[in-house]
Every structure is written in structure tokens, then in C-alpha cells.
Design goal:
By secondary structure, this protein is mainly α. The longest helix is centred in the middle third of the chain and has 48 residues, at about 25-75. The protein contains two helices and no strands.
């Protein structure tokens, strides 16, 4: 686990260093970083919503299945 964490930290530091030494103005760099952060945030929210929708659909199906099993097991009078 330490190796993976070290690798991820190394990638982040390397990416930050590459951005800082890139031949563009600070304003351009900040604009690019802001745009990239916005894009990643939007993707995260879309992925999160997709996952939540799937989870809710599975929960609804389980509740319907449980309800159906309960009605099946109920003795008829």
C-alpha cells in the first residue's frame, strides 16, 4: 500500500512541477488548471449521480422482490 501511495504522490508532484515549468504565463496556467478542475468536477458529479441512480434502482428492485416474497408467503384465509 505504501508503494501505491508513494507512486500516486510522485505522479502528483511530477505533474505539478511540469505545469509550473511549462512555457506559459501564470494567467494561462491558472485558467487551464481551473478549466481542468471544472471538467473533472463535472465528470465526478456525473459519475456519482450515475452510481447513485443505479444503487437506487437496485434498492427499488430488492424492495419489490421482498414485497413479492412476503405476499407469496402470506397464508390465504
Amino acid at each position: 500500500m505504501k508503494i501505491v501511495l508513494s507512486f500516486i504522490i510522485g505522479i502528483a508532484v511530477g505533474a505539478a512541477a511540469a505545469l509550473m515549468f511549462a512555457p506559459s504565463s501564470g494567467e494561462d496556467l491558472r485558467a487551464k488548471m481551473h478549466a481542468e478542475a471544472d471538467a473533472r468536477t463535472q465528470k465526478f458529479h456525473a459519475d456519482w449521480q450515475k452510481g447513485m441512480d443505479g444503487m437506487h434502482a437496485r434498492m427499488d428492485k430488492m424492495q419489490a422482490d421482498i414485497s413479492q416474497m412476503r405476499h407469496k408467503d402470506t397464508p390465504e384465509a
